């Protein structure tokens, strides 16, 4: 099971096993990590699951859909590595992926 590293808004770092097929959002919510609110439960309609993916791992995930890009416009602190974590589905190549959760999701 890939280990995903989450740096959360208080600066602490959490390493979590996330099963293939689940999202980066699922891995955070199931382990009660702070920062990813996921108000819409993963249906790509709230933008409270915004994360910054470390640049070296961006290519491991499918590109953002137009829907996701539109929603990211409503998030704060967006940069070129911003994604909605409910749309980042973990695959077997994701071992060691690291994301940073911004302070602005709530
Ligand atoms: S959980 Fe709502 S957009 Fe990801």
TrEMBL record:
Q: Which Gene3D superfamilies match?
A: 3.10.20.30
Q: Which UniProt keywords apply?
A: 2Fe-2S, Iron, Iron-sulfur, Metal-binding
One matching Pfam family, short form? Fer2
Q: Which CDD domains match?
A: fer2
The cofactors it requires, by name, are: [2Fe-2S] cluster
Domain of life according to the entry:
Bacteria
Residues annotated as domain 2Fe-2S ferredoxin-type: 2-105
What PANTHER family does its record include? FERREDOXIN-2, MITOCHONDRIAL, FERREDOXIN/ADRENODOXIN
Name by which UniProt lists this protein: 2Fe-2S iron-sulfur cluster binding domain-containing protein
Q: Which organism is it from?
A: Rhodococcus zopfii
């Amino acid at each position: 099971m890939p280990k995903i590293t989450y740096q959360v808004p208080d600066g602490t770092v959490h390493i979590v096993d996330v099963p293939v097929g689940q999202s980066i959002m699922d891995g955070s919510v199931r382990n009660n990590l702070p920062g990813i609110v996921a108000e819409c439960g993963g249906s790509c309609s709230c933008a409270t699951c915004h994360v910054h993916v470390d640049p070296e791992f961006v290519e491991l995930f499918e590109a953002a859909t137009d829907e996701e890009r539109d929603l990211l416009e409503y998030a704060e602190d967006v940069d070129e590595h911003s994604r909605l974590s409910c749309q980042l589905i973990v695959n077997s190549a994701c071992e060691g992926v690291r994301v940073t959760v911004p302070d602005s999701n709530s």
